[in-house]
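Box S1 | Example of a co-folding query
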Amino acid sequence: MADAGAEPLDPTLQDLLDHDSLKWIFVGGKGGVGKTTCSCSLAVQLAARRQNVLIISTDPAHNLSDAFKQKFTSAPTLVNGMTNLSAMEVDPQATQTDFSRVDDASSSSFLGDLVSSFPGIDEAMSFAEVMRQVQTMDYDCIVFDTAPTGHTLRLLQLPTTIQKGLDKLMSLRSMMGGALDQITAMMGVGGDAQGSILAKLDELKAVVEEVNTQFRDPDLTTFVCVCIPEFLSLYETERLVQELARNDIDTCNIIINQIIFDDAVVGSKLMRARIRMQQRYLDQFDDLYEDFHLVKLPLLEEELANKSS
Ligand SMILES: Nc1ncnc2c1ncn2[C@@H]1O[C@H](COP(=O)(O)OP(=O)(O)OP(=O)(O)O)[C@@H](O)[C@H]1O
Ligand SMILES: [Mg+2]
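Box S1 (continued) | Returned holo structure for adenosine-5'-triphosphate
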């Protein structure tokens, strides 16, 4: 993998590398198309230009460790051989923001339960917690190696989900006014416990609002779609591109991976048929995405993850 990372990227990704203000780069697409390979390679290239780069895997089936042949955890760890590239693997669902931590078990439950009753809020809170941690660290560029599409879209919507949930909670709080205090007092929640839960919510709300604004700023955030020249992948890319547009998230780079180029084939009927099939979809990509940078990468003879470095 280290070898693969050192290969120069196709010139069209140069724009991405030269775009110095970019802080958040998401790499996503269908399962197995090459997201991890591309995001690791991109992170290595970025580290050559930027001060301090972090690559985060948000795929519960993490594979940064396999790609770099090094064990990573939920804390950033320097990638072997690099001085300014770190990696971490987080599971947004597992990093629970535990409201029971703010006070003893008996008093935490009422507000904690109220908070948890908002759909998706647990996952959203955990994501906010990861973002809060990352925001306090000294990285000027963060690359996300994401899980296959459905999960990634949910992740990108989390800041909005949490913001809506918190807004509801805050308006409930002001509507109920003193009544909420009385109820929580009856439930055994002391003023301190309630105050610290609310303070925690306020703090997370501030992080989430900040992240939400940053994700929607094309100077700070972009999404790189990775795909292969096949029907399902083309279809999924279109779904992803539309969903990103609906969420106001910039996307202008599509990496089409695993292309079989003519000169790689000597007299194989199967390969010639695959080339024709790929060409059909490559033409469709060209038609559909003329405003995008399309980066075309060859299918290599060997899988990259197992290439000895
Ligand atoms: N251009 C290529 N040529 C040959 N092998 C490749 C190429 N790109 C990726 N691979 C190999 O394909 C496999 C899948 O790649 P990778 O892990 O990057 O995909 P992914 O999209 O991250 O998968 P997942 O959805 O499981 O996370 C790996 O074994 C990788 O080495
Ligand atoms: Mg992967």
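The chain has one domain: 2-298. The longest helix spans residues 149-176.
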